[in-house]
Amino acid sequence: MNIVIYRLSVLLLCIALLIALGCGSDSEDDDTVISGPTEFFSSVPKNGSTLHPDDTISVLFTEIPENLTVAPGTISEMQNRVITISGPLPLGDISIELTWADDTKTLEYTIAPEGMVMVREGEFQMGSNSDTASDDEKPVHTVFIDTFFMDTHEVTVGEYKRFVEEMGHRELEWEEIVPYAPTDEHPIVFVSWHDAMAFATWAGKRLPTEAEWEKAARGGMIAKTYPWGNLTPNGKQCNFADKNLAHYWWADQKADDGYTFTAPVGNYPENNYGLFDMAGNVWEWCLDEYDAGFYAVSEGVNPISGANTPQEISKGFENVESIRVLRGGSWIVTSVNVRNSTRFMLMPESTNYSVGFRCVMDLP
Which of these three, 60, 78, 111, is where a domain ends? Predict the structure, then answer.
């Protein structure tokens, strides 16, 4: 009997709440009178979410608020008790202030460009002193990086094709690419550093500095070997040299990542920043000039080798001839070479079946 009474009490309480919030009827002629001030009830997407500049936000009140204003953003629709707030919204961490006759409410969001995530400013430990680290990964040193946005995935074949079509950039040998990247969802390969820079400029972005890349790969974790932690990859975390490359003596015959060459982007779990394929799949071009001893002399704030700023390298990049940095490893390398701190280098005109890129954007 007590259980029945308890359940009945809960049911009556729920009904009372629905009536109080004006949810007890779908009729537009509902005569329910709500006493007291108009109150904020909920928002979709919920407070604290990441949005894109043109996304909309729906805000539910207990009744239609009087004299409502929002900033930033625009009230694009007001239907019953639901208010729709439209952009465009400024990039970065924003606070949307809602003010009406009875109260105020602040909603916090992060606004990032479509297909990108925000990597917030802060310090991290760059490099590695482990036994598997090469000399050019040492010493471990503290680096501060400003906030920036990074592509969630490597630039795909489809995205690169659109760039070539719109800009008339040099055609790649597509028949050479297909065996390694067979669909538009696979990462583009056989692109030089100059090609990657041209794409980034067209997209309104740039290549990441080596320090930005490593901070993003680590995903906020401290002193970890890989983007997911210290567990040696077994094929579930990333695409690297595994049993599908049986004809390569260095391939791990106990691991199976499901692909012989590249995998479609986003095929493996993302890291803590929401970035995919920061280990393996394809090597990724960085902005920096390669310098084996750079870590011993680099600046502690936004370091970049070969220039003082990214803009200096981007200006006249077509004439750059010095060797460039690549990061992240690829489908053809061992687990040792998909570590967060692994460094590689090629001449800027070089192309390869295991080399691609992703882009970043500065916070305005």
Answer: 111
User: Which residues make Cβ contacts (< 8 Å) with residue 7, sequence separation at least 6?
Assistant: none
Per-residue pLDDT of the chain (364 residues; tens, 9 = 90+): 433 333 344 344 333 334 444 444 443 444 444 468 999 999 999 999 999 999 999 999 999 999 999 999 999 998 889 999 998 999 999 999 999 999 999 999 999 999 999 999 999 999 999 999 999 999 999 999 999 999 999 999 999 999 999 999 999 999 999 999 999 999 999 999 999 999 999 999 999 999 999 999 999 999 999 999 999 999 999 999 999 998 999 999 999 999 999 999 999 999 999 999 999 999 999 999 999 999 999 989 999 999 999 999 999 999 999 999 999 999 999 999 999 999 999 999 999 999 999 999 999 8
Residues 218 and 344 in one domain: yes
Q: Does residue 43 sit in the same domain as residue 181?
A: no
Sheet holding 343-346, edge to edge: 343-346, 324-327, 283-289, 355-356
Distance between CA atoms of 263 and 230, rounded to whole angstroms?
Answer: 22
- Both tokens of 266, joined, read 């986003």
Q: How far apart are CA 213 and CA 198, in angstroms?
A: 19
Please check whether residue 116 lies inside any domain of the structure.
no
Alpha carbons 146 and 90: distance in angstroms, whole number: 17
Distances (CA, A) of 95 to 71, 151, 315: 8, 24, 35
Q: What is the DSSP letter of 192?
A: -
- Looking at the structure, do residues 91 and 58 belong to the same domain, yes or no? yes
Domain of residue 203 covers 124-362
Half-sphere exposure of 353 (CA within 13 A, CB side): 16
- Domains identified in the chain, total number: 2
Residue with tokens 């100059």: 194
Amino acid at 201: T
